[in-house]
Here is the input.
Amino acid sequence: MAAKAGFRKPRRIGIIGFGHLGQYLTTMIEDEGHQHGLELAFVWNRSREKMDGKVRRELQLEFLSESMQRSADLIVEVAHPQIAQEYGEEILKHADFMVGSPTAFGEQGVDAKCREAARRYGHTLYVPSGALWGAEDIQKMADRGTLKALKVTMTKHPDSFKLEGSLQEQKESGSSQRTVLYEGPVRQLCPLAPNNVNTMAAAAMAGHNLGFDQVQGCLVADPSLLDWHVVDIEVDGPVDESSGHQFTVKSTRRNPSSWGAVTGAATYASFWSSVLKCKGHGGKLVLC
Here is the structure.
């Protein structure tokens, strides 16, 4: 039977990770996906029982390797940077890939491997801007080579940070007062705070002429911030030769959040908007 005129096959979305953000995206696709030509292909979570009663059984994956057989058009990772590090190239053989944990690219070589896989197989590698205000403008400056410096400062309540090693010890020792936990290149911070500094990693991807080694990150624990996540972005551009003045932009984003939450409220809607933009842009990296 011939397809109905104007019929368009739904774009199938797979979700990797079923934390708060994964649950939100799953619900949005199930409840509103038909309005945007989307349908759920699968959901995978390390602890499968977490999906019971929330995800239809036939859509639950027991093993992540099964995702390649589900004919997904777009696979969205909102779990852990290890997913892109270990499976990024394989996923890009079969589908477009939205990396919700871009701290994965802080590991040497992962960025280049995923970009090359996207080019080779014609699928798009998407990096959501998340809490990074002005991502497209930063990328435009990087494309022109006019981005001279970029710094992202993230300030949260100490309980909103999930840290590793020395940073966790530092957080605990200074938990009663505002404490600068880290200030320096984003690359060195990514493995120490893989779930908290995706905004900084997205900035390093957007500011690609500086990259992870030159984009600066500053992580601040502030016990007075009970229900806010604050992101300050400082951009330096070229110096005007006639006046000697430098182009600068400074922005502050105050995102309401529940006490102790890793992700602020506005970031959920930002991720959904990013998913809606992921319609296939060919074999390249796209900020969304």
